[in-house]
Amino acid sequence: MSELAPDSVLRLAPGCRLNAAGESEDLLLIPEGALRLKGPARAIVELCDGQRAMREVAEELKRRYSSADGVRIETEVAALLARLRDRGVLEAV
Amino acid sequence: MKYTPRSLIAEITHRCPLHCVYCSNPLELQRRSAELPTENWISIFQQAAELGVLQLHLTGGEPLSRSDLTELVRAGRKAHLYLNLITSGVGLDGSRLDQLIEAGLDHIQLSFQDTEEGSANEFAGTRSHALKLRVAEAIRERRIAFTINMVVHRRNVERLGEMLAFAEHSGAQRLEIAHVQYYGWAFRNRDALLPTREQLDRSVEIVEAARERLKGRLRIDFVLPDYYAKYPKPCMNGWGHQQMLIDPAGRVLPCHAASVIPGLEFSSARERPLRWIWEESPAFNRFRDESWMPEPCRSCDRRTRDFGGCRCQAFLLAGDAAATDPVCTLAPTHFIVEETLQRVNGSSGRSWVYRNDPT
């Protein structure tokens, strides 16, 4: 699969949604089951609202985790979003 | 409790306009007069969510046969469950589909019997194929997750290529190709439905090639007939480990076939809290751990992966639910499966029997 461009705008595909906030674990519910989301993954998926570009998702995350390495955040956001897109969980708008 | 149920299969009715020759429902169907009323199901959904269930699969029979389906979907969503509808499509039109989506339906799984209309209607025992095509079109026009389910067997597996092409252009995101599993009515028609070894091997090749070609466009789940396997399937991922099924009358079972096993008493959700049934009931605990296992399972490294296979199949084939699943090549009763396969591979095909609807 191709890499995502920084200006790719993504949103959750039909039939994919986050479980209610505040449960004991963060889950992405999908037709065939559930994917467990670790660390900031839930926040990253929430930011994919069909409005923000991937670049803006990473910017927002850098703002929230200002002490973390910015380049690493960009790499990890790109990797997570590409993986979820390949899995059919996120779709390009 | 070590085990958390993750999915609830709700057989909300056994009524069905189709009479598929491979129907997986039990031989004894629950009558309409025995069906749980709406409020019992709503309570069950809430209890299930409290136990940890994430996914609710509404199935049957044909779930659209119940006029309160939209209300049940709404109640399931309110309980924070993921709502999956498993349907033949008969009884669905654009306006009912809109109501279901508005009520919170997440995903529709639509079954097809074939791509060739005459055969599809023959396998279903009713003229439903043309209607299903219209339903698929209505689903495609809406924003909802869509899976096509194709059941394959000896008499239609030759058209697997056409089935894949149909699914590719249907608007579905997923395709489930399931070889018939031999339980319920399908067990009665087994010798007419089991594919030959050659057909099976060819189907694996075709699906593998299609998976590669359709990567990123269509996800393909493929279920093999375990009679040809070397080791048994990890049935339900273990008895009472992750899933439960409730029949139309409210009986709670570890799977859709378990009612065939003699000597087990399955409690009703009308009479007992779901938590007690899941955690405490003797039926759910009967095959949960490894203490029931005979040899060769007991000392087998695979026992934590396949849990000794399927208890219902052990009963159906070997007459003992506590035997090693006879499909396992290590099982002392494996000769039963071998004899069946020899018979099927040596015959030019048999006829089948249709089932009637419950009253």
Descriptive key words:
heterodimer; A: 93 residues; alpha+beta; three-stranded antiparallel β-sheet; 3 helices; 6 strands; 38% helix; B: 359 residues; alpha/beta; nine-stranded mixed β-sheet; 14 helices; 9 strands; 35% helix; globular
Describe the structure in your own words.
The complex is a heterodimer of chains A (93) and B (359). Chain A has 93 residues and is α+β, with helices and mostly antiparallel strands. Chain A has helices at residues 41-47, 54-64, 70-86, and strands at residues 9-12, 17-18, 27-30, 33-36, 49-53, 90-92. In chain A, a hairpin with a 2-residue loop joins strand 3 (27-30) and strand 4. Chain B is of the alpha/beta class and 359 residues long. Chain B is 35% helix and 13% strand. Chain B has helices at residues 38-51, 69-78, 94-103, 117-124, 129-140, 160-168, 184-188, 190-193, 197-213, 274-279, 282-285, 303-306, 311-318, 334-346; strands at residues 7-11, 55-59, 82-87, 107-112, 145-152, 174-179, 219-223, 243-246, 252-253. The chains are: A alpha+beta (93), B alpha/beta (359). The interface between A and B is medium-sized, with 16 and 21 residues.
